[in-house]
């Protein structure tokens, strides 16, 4: 009889479940049989983890997987406790946790075949170069579209991040609020890294002028499938889920997007290193990687040979043209969410209507000068409209980023200084736009 994998949530639940398991085992396990229990800390949903439980226990009938479900912050707290709380494997889409735990010597090295598991996607490093954690899957970031609604409104699907700033898409986009929707800081940092820090913030500001910002509880894909907007900034996984449920949506991977990984690692404190290695090897095997594409989940394996006979709608990122994927720096990216959220709040969320009006005024001035050399004053107005009060050099400095890791710990005097600098830049831009030359 197959044992359903335990999913532990709290200490009290843990003791109850362990007691129930022991009682059950007394009746179902043959006399003298021993079961090795492997504790896997994860945030992946049960509909995925249960596939791995079933297939792994077929291969290892004397093993039992005990899943401990923890979201990012709780998982980190759990894995830094003495003996890492008994955990053997950590498996989750939480890149920052893996980097932080590696720095605390919390993992054992994993040996993999780099011919089968390159650990890279074009110039994007997916796995730890020193071998302490390995990419399990990748998620692509881009634009979810409602083709019927685009056609109804006479619009073509965008092909780049820059396309979204076109006045033609005014009122046609939903984008997540960086402070409210969990995946959005990474999405915006992809734009910032692929376009450059200063140009990236200017572009995000210009896109936001065309968009509605969504708060917690609202996902762009849902708004797009429900017909509230034809375009949304999102992750391909949500679009794949919608398609699997019969909804007519497409997904655009803009030029210079990124596919960000989920990882797996073996804990340094494991008492079952051989069994932990066997489970990780299974996750990363061709069979294990193909499991993630079954039952409509359409995740992207980190192993190229797993894409043979893939679902027709699933893009193989390993076959995308050279240069289609940004050389995203995970080490910098995992340090930036606090700063990205703080700047998004001040640059975009707080002043969205005023900034949107500024961009509309700028677009109208640029339209008047289309087909001719751009007046210097107009070029300067554009630069000022996209002004960001933090330099690209600081935004790539780990020490600086550490100081802005938590929004609630940033000195209010600093954020007020940022607001004043932005206000001054926008006021100057409006002054230039009002000039006689424009």
From TrEMBL:
It holds the Pfam family SBP_bac_6. It comes from the Bacteria. The keyword ATP-binding does not apply. Residues 1-33 form the signal peptide. Keywords: Signal. PANTHER family: SLL0237 PROTEIN (PTHR30006:SF24), THIAMINE-BINDING PERIPLASMIC PROTEIN-RELATED (PTHR30006). This is Extracellular solute-binding protein.
């Amino acid at each position: 009889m197959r044992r359903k994998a335990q999913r532990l949530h709290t200490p009290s639940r843990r003791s109850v479940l362990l007691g129930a398991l022991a009682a059950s085992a007394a009746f179902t396990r043959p006399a003298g049989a021993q079961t090795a229990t492997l504790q896997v800390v994860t945030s992946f949903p049960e509909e995925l983890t249960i596939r791995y439980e079933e297939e792994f226990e077929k291969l290892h009938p004397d093993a039992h997987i005990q899943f401990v479900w923890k979201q990012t912050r709780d998982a980190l707290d759990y894995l830094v406790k003495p003996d890492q709380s008994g955990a053997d494997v950590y498996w989750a889409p939480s890149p920052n946790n893996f980097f932080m735990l590696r720095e605390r010597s919390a993992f054992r090295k994993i040996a993999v075949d780099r011919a089968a598991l390159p650990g890279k996607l074009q110039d994007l490093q997916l796995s730890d170069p020193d071998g302490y954690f390995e990419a399990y899957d990748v998620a692509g970031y881009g634009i979810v579209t409602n083709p019927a609604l685009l056609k109804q409104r006479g619009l073509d699907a965008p092909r780049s991040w820059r396309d979204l700033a076109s006045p033609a898409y005014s009122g046609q986009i939903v984008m997540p609020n960086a402070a409210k929707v969990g995946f959005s800081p990474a999405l915006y940092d992809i734009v910032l890294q692929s376009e450059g820090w200063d140009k990236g913030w200017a572009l995000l500001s210009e896109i936001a002028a065309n968009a509605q910002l969504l708060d917690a509880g609202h996902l762009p894909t849902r708004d797009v499938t429900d017909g509230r907007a034809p375009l949304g900034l999102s992750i391909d996984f949500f679009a794949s889920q919608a398609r699997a449920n019969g909804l007519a949506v497409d997904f655009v991977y803009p030029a210079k997007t990124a596919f960000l990984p989920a990882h797996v690692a073996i804990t340094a404190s494991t008492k079952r290193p051989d069994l932990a290695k066997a489970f990780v090897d299974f996750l990363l095997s061709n069979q294990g990687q193909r499991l993630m594409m079954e039952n409509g989940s359409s995740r992207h394996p980190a192993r190229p040979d797993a894409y043979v006979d893939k679902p027709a709608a699933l893009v193989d990122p390993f076959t995308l043209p050279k240069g289609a994927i940004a050389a995203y720096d995970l080490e910098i990216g995992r340090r930036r969410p606090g700063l990205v959220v703080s700047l998004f709040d001040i640059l975009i969320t707080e002043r969205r209507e005023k900034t949107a009006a500024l961009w509309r005024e700028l677009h109208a001035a640029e339209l008047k000068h289309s087909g001719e050399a751009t007046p210097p004053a107009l070029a300067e107005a554009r630069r000022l409209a996209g002004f960001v009060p933090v330099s690209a050099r600081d935004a790539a400095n780990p020490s600086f980023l550490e100081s802005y890791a938590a929004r609630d710990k940033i000195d209010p005097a600093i954020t007020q200084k940022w607001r004043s600098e932005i206000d001054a830049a926008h006021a100057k831009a409006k002054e230039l736009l009002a000039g006689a030359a424009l």
